[in-house]
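Incident log, structure service

09:12 report received: a user says their structure output differs between two submissions of the same chain.
09:20 pulled the input from the user's history:
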Amino acid sequence: EIEGAAANTTATVNEAEVAKNMTVQLFPNPNNGVFTVKGEMANTSLNTVTMEITDMMGQVIYKQNLVVTSGKIAASISIDNALANGMYMLHLVAENSRKTVSFAVQR
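09:34 re-ran on a clean worker, output below:
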């Protein structure tokens, strides 16, 4: 279990480092599979970020490229048929940055 604790510590440090490069909001939360993603990137030269939605087992349920304009992300997502009730993780990936937000689907 000591190895697991070390891995968790590393993940926390990486998440804190990434938080400096990207901020993300997802609302409403919980939602019914229709939601808005907004965020800001420190690197304003990026044109797109990759959004992945995974279940709690890490399986990718949905993937889409989002447009970045002047360092800002604003997207309305509608995948209501693909998500059952439960918890999911939204991952935004850009260059060396990764930001994860958890959300719930309730119908």
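09:41 both user submissions now match this output. Likely a transient worker issue. Closing.
09:42 reviewer note: The two ends are 38 Å apart (CA to CA). The first helix runs from residue 2 to 21.
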